[in-house]
Design goal:
single chain, 578 residues, alpha/beta, ABC transporter transmembrane region fold, Rossmann fold, six-stranded mixed β-sheet
């Protein structure tokens, strides 16, 4: 699994092959300079220090320090290049993940916590950057230095080099054992970090409810439990790191030093080893083991990065897409809507809608009422193509809804939700919704149409007044009027109202109702209503119960039946009198 992930990450490097080639060139040159330094030191020791000619070797010392400075500069350039490469790759990963996220169906978001998605796009992708920015560069540099150093050592003394190279398989086995043990721990650590993000996001989102119901202690305990679990797995990873990484590698390095000293101590008289050669070998053992120790020290970070990359790729590979459209060249002109025997289930087991059939002629208004869970919102969700259905048929202008393009549906269907969502930006940008074709005059015209212009003009900066997160600085009625203006600005043929007045006070409702009356003129309107007083003029009202239409007719007709709708109306009328 990790090899597949690593190979996939390398494919992203190919897009920046010139930068990668430049970084590799710097690393390769650095490894050559690193290998030349002990050779220069050996020559200087044997030919100048040993013979007492220190003053004659100044040019060699100069070359040594120039090589040393060159190595420092090249090391900086290689790390700088890899950091740029890392940031570019992570930018691409985030872009690809977010692009796929926008295509996913509502059912995916129903079962996936927002905090978990945020964690994958931020924390996990940043962990990939850490791998490419430093760890990946260290791995390549260490590998090149290992090859060049071993080659040089074998040219100096192949017998001793052969003994030293026996340590390499031991180091490899140590790393493999570490990888097998730590992978699961790293996975759980990342999962608990994601859980922390979910709990944090959920708590911040619902802080008002938490404080109103005095749930601070409970939420704190839940957060502490997840936090403690994250700490537990992190500490277990640390225990494994402490045993298998630097201590194990350092022990092997000490054993290698002992082998060198023993070998030279036993054979120097017969072989005629010089002080410069002994110095060079000690330096090469350092060059051999120090990068490997650094690599193994960073192996835990590499493990974390690989697990993080897997989580990002899981998001990129998710294929639970929104329903597909045939994208035929049909246009919505009249706005006639027909449901024919539509049945639907969210889980594939229990039907939420059962054989729903109705028809709305162009310019008419229909409304759905019913208790919670009766299927009102599900009808809207299917009509707006948030969910796929395979039983029954939905038609617009006698054309199957699946044959329209998404562009046509989004332009001709206007939606107003119970809780209007406003973005960071300005009043104007929230009405315009970044549709460049809308001019300032058209934005103002839409606001005037829904009676939002007056309150906008009273704001300090008018249409350029800033909007905070979710429009919290505006009243619920003002937010709803902006949502109306946004919908009207796009000039939809069919208007969908999902309990658009449910959270509005009675005084504001009068203004909202006037705006709705104007919005509905000449448009086919489908409304979900909580307050029955808002839909009394509808051409047809459908009463839903457990996914079925049990009553249908005009307001007066349904009252005359003295059945479910009558009881609902009487209940609300009684509550209003009280």
């Amino acid at each position: 699994m990790q090899r597949k992930t690593f190979n996939r990450l390398l494919a992203y490097v190919w897009a920046y092959k010139f930068l990668a080639f430049l970084a590799l060139t710097f690393i390769f040159t650095t490894s050559l300079f690193t290998t030349l330094l002990p050779l220069l030191a050996r020559f200087y020791i044997d030919h100048f220090i040993a013979k007492g000619r220190l003053s004659q070797g100044y040019y060699l010392l100069l070359a040594y320090y120039l090589l040393f400075l060159g190595r420092v500069l090249l090391t900086f350039l290689s790390q700088y290049s890899f950091s740029k490469l890392a940031h570019s790759i992570v930018r691409d990963l985030r872009q690809e993940a977010f692009a796929n996220l926008e295509k996913l169906s509502m059912s995916y978001f129903d079962r996936t916590a927002a905090g978990a998605l945020v964690s994958r796009l931020t924390n996990d992708s940043q962990a990939v950057a850490d791998m490419f920015g430093s760890i990946f560069a260290n791995f390549i540099s260490s590998f090149l230095i290992l090859l060049v150093t071993l080659s040089t050592m074998f040219t100096l003394n192949w017998q001793l080099s052969l003994y030293i190279s026996l340590f390499l398989p031991v180091m490899l086995v140590t790393v493999l054992v570490y990888q097998r043990i730590s992978h699961r721990l790293v996975q759980m650590t990342r999962q608990k970090l994601s859980d922390l993000n979910v709990k944090l996001s959920e708590s911040i989102e619902g802080m008002r409810i938490i404080q109103v119901f005095g749930q601070e202690k409970r939420l704190l305990d839940e957060f502490e439990n997840i936090n403690q679990e994250h700490l537990t797995y992190a500490n277990r990873s640390l225990d494994v790191d402490s045993l298998f990484l630097r201590p194990a590698m350092s022990l092997l390095k000490i054993l290698a030093y002992g082998l060198i000293l023993t070998y030279f101590g036993l054979t120097w008289q017969q072989a005629g080893f010089t002080a410069g050669l002994i110095y060079a070998f000690i330096q090469y053992v350092n060059q051999l083991f120090n990068p490997l120790i650094e690599v193994t020290q960073n192996f835990s970070v590499l493990q974390t990065s690989m697990v993080a990359a897997e989580r990002v790729f899981d998001l990129i590979d998710e294929r639970d897409y929104e329903p597909t459209q045939a994208n035929l060249a049909h246009e919505i002109e009249a706005g006639k809507v027909s449901f024919k025997n539509v049945s639907f289930s969210y889980d594939g087991k229990r039907d939420i809608l059962k054989n729903i059939s109705f028809e709305v002629n162009p310019g008419e208004t229909i409304a759905f009422v019913g208790s919670t869970g009766s299927g009102k919102s599900s009808i809207i969700n299917l009509f707006l193509r948030f969910y796929e259905f395979d039983r029954g048929q939905i038609l617009i202008d006698d054309v199957d809804i699946k044959d329209y393009s998404y562009k046509e549906l989004r332009q001709k269907l206007g939606l107003v939700l119970q809780e209007p969502f406003l973005y960071h930006g300005t009043i104007a940008s929230n009405i315009q919704m970044y549709q460049e074709r809308l001019s300032s005059a058209e934005i103002e015209e839409a606001a005037r149409f829904v009676d939002a212009h007056d309150f906008i003009q009273k704001l300090p900066a008018g249409y350029q007044s800033p909007v905070t997160e979710k429009g919290s600085s505006l009243s619920s009625g003002q937010r709803q009027l902006l949502a109306f203006a946004r919908t009207i600005a796009s000039q939809p043929k069919i208007l969908v109202l999902d309990e658009a007045t449910a959270n509005i006070d009675s005084e504001t409702e009068e203004v909202i109702q006037k705006s709705l009356q104007k919005m509905r003129q000449g448009r086919t309107t489908i409304a979900i209503a909580h307050r029955l007083s808002t839909i009394q003029d509808a051409d047809c009202i459908y009463v839903l119960d457990k996914g079925e239409i049990i009553e249908a007719g005009k307001h007066a007709e349904l009252l005359a039946l003295k059945a479910t709708y009558y009881k609902m109306y009487q209940l609300q009328a009684g509550m209003m009198k009280e």
